[in-house]
Amino acid sequence: xxxxxxxxxxxxxxxxxxxxxxxxxxxxxxxxxxxxxxxxxxxxxxxxxxxxxxxxxxxxxxxxxxxxxxxxxxxxxxxxxxxxxxxxxxxxxxxxxxxxxxxxxxxxxxxxxxxxxxxxxxxxxxxxxxxxxxxxxxxxxxxxxxxxxxxxxxxxxxxxxxxxxxxxxxxxxxxxxxxxxxxxxxxxxxxxxxxxxxxxxxxxxxxxxxxxxxxxxxxxxxxxxxxxxxxxxxxxxxxxxxxxxxxxxxxxxxxxxxxxxxxxxxxxxxxxxxxxxxxxxxxxxxxxxxxxxxxxxxxxxxxxxxxxxxxxxxxxxxxxxxxxxxxxxxxxxxxxxxxxxxxxxxx
Length: 347
Description:
347 residues; 9-stranded mixed beta sheet
């Protein structure tokens, strides 16, 4: 039996990976989360999913192939570093090594968290350092490290000088300044991935997702928050900053598709972009959602709110050429899915 490990498995990205791997394989997933940001599996697994508790683990599904442990990933990793048989001895699982390890444990949040509490976000440095030390000792078959488009130099994302960001725009021999402590931590994680591959012969894949979104994302992120306000027909319609700042929006299903494909072909710790390759402003997103709602509100700009860089979007040529991948879900289709959920939840 194959066991996969997902840290941060109850956050937005982590839980979507749990569900995808469970639905497309016969493997077992051990997922860990302290629920400081993520939510308990009972809130996002299908209603009626059977569960049982044993030895501090919660088993979900009729085949019990989803196993949840409520714990800080750092504590779990430290115990495994001290004792390779920790999981078996403590929880009774016959897990002596993992196949795939997906590392989503992180201090995450929207712009308010990145700008509002940057030193808290800097804890990602310790989370990632301990994680890479462990995988270099444990030697799982494959490791996924999710970096971020925030790792790109901010001077390439200004109103006067914005470009489609290419993988080669990050070069460890001549560094640009990434976006706040979150960008620094992700950039450092990429470097650790490179070291893990080169010096420890570990198969590591890094991804740089741009602005991922989906139906089950929480309201601290802009897309579901904007969808909610449109569903409630807010007028005037508030937008942080001028609304002219733009991002590269990509649906979580496309992120997962590209990630799993990349893990089959990239093992040297190098990173790829995952995005649509298109720059879309927040004003345009508001227009999409309000068109679904059937009204045209007055826009109220909130210029005192944090907005981050002016323009961030990816060049997808490298991914298209190397992996033959392109996103399948258009902005209109993806945002419609988010809007339909918002209508059901808030109206």
